[in-house]
Write a structure and sequence with these properties.
Blueprint lengths: L16 H16 L14 H11 L11 E6 L2 H22 L2 H7 L10 H4 L2 E8 L12 H19 L2 E2 L9 H6 L5 E10 L15 H4 L4
Helix pairs in contact: 2-6
The structure holds flavin mononucleotide (FMN).
The site of flavin mononucleotide has 10 residues, from loops.
């Protein structure tokens, strides 16, 4: 049996043009302030704040509305430590030879190393998993990578909006995260987002965005 189409009226707040304009400007200005945070303070963060951000991410569009994501919120210090240790093992192999010379050269301006203390410093880690299919293999999911990427984008924007820092961290490979977190076979680890307040002495790489005219084409 296939599901029937059913509609409800769109819930939509139409705002005045001047307000739209002001919001667009404010949003872009605030987005300019977002940077990847790799050094966190140990100030606690209310779990419900992070959960609201995850809730926002879970409202993202997805292929055929399959919502092919799972967000594992880790605050347990022992689990964070296990994740850090496993990540650092993979990272050591990556920096010692798994990465191409070119990749390492591209990473140089960021100053990243195999050490990942932020995985323990941050009060929480959000480990995002992509569901390649549903609970049963015959439950197909579509555009999984695109859908989960959008959800992570919304999550990053939400965390920034509420005043928290994060970095979209991608250890490679990251299969070990399924094991540590006990995730089922249909899920693959997609990204790790440490969440917290930046340390008072948090520096960020001195890098720039492309000029706007280089990224927009008006037709
Ligand atoms: C898909 C993706 C993977 C990334 N992986 C890592 C990573 O493994 N480690 C890291 O420190 N930063 C990682 N980053 C963060 C980028 O290095 C960062 O976004 C970029 O240098 C721009 O800096 P900014 O976020 O401070 O503006 C990743 C970003 C993306 C979008």
């Amino acid at each position: 049996m296939t599901a029937e189409e059913k509609t409800v009226p769109l819930s939509f707040e139409r705002v005045a043009a001047e307000e739209t304009s002001a919001r667009a400007k404010r949003f872009a200005e605030h987005a300019r302030l977002r940077r990847s945070v790799r050094k966190f303070s140990n100030d606690p963060v209310a779990v419900e704040v992070i959960e609201h951000c995850i809730e926002a991410a879970a409202q993202s569009p997805s292929g055929a509305n399959k919502q092919p994501w799972t967000f594992v919120l880790v605050t347990d210090v022992n689990v964070k430590r296990s994740i850090r240790e496993a990540c650092e093992r993979e990272e050591s192999a990556f920096y010692a030879g798994r990465a191409t010379r070119r990749w390492l050269d591209d990473l140089k301006p960021l100053g990243t190393t195999p050490d990942k203390p932020f995985l323990e410093q941050a009060p929480a880690l959000i480990v995002v998993f992509a569901q390649r299919h549903g609970d049963e293999r015959k439950d197909r999911h579509y555009y999984v990578t695109e859908s989960v990427g959008i959800a992570v984008g919304v999550l990053v924007a939400a965390l920034h909006h509420v005043g928290l820092g994060t970095v979209t961290y991608t250890p490679a490979p990251m299969k070990f995260l399924s094991k540590i977190l006990g995730r089922p076979d249909n899920e693959s680890a997609y990204m790790v987002l440490p969440v917290g307040y930046p340390a008072p002495d948090c520096d960020v790489p001195d890098i720039e965005r492309k000029p706007f005219d280089e990224v927009i084409v008006r037709v």
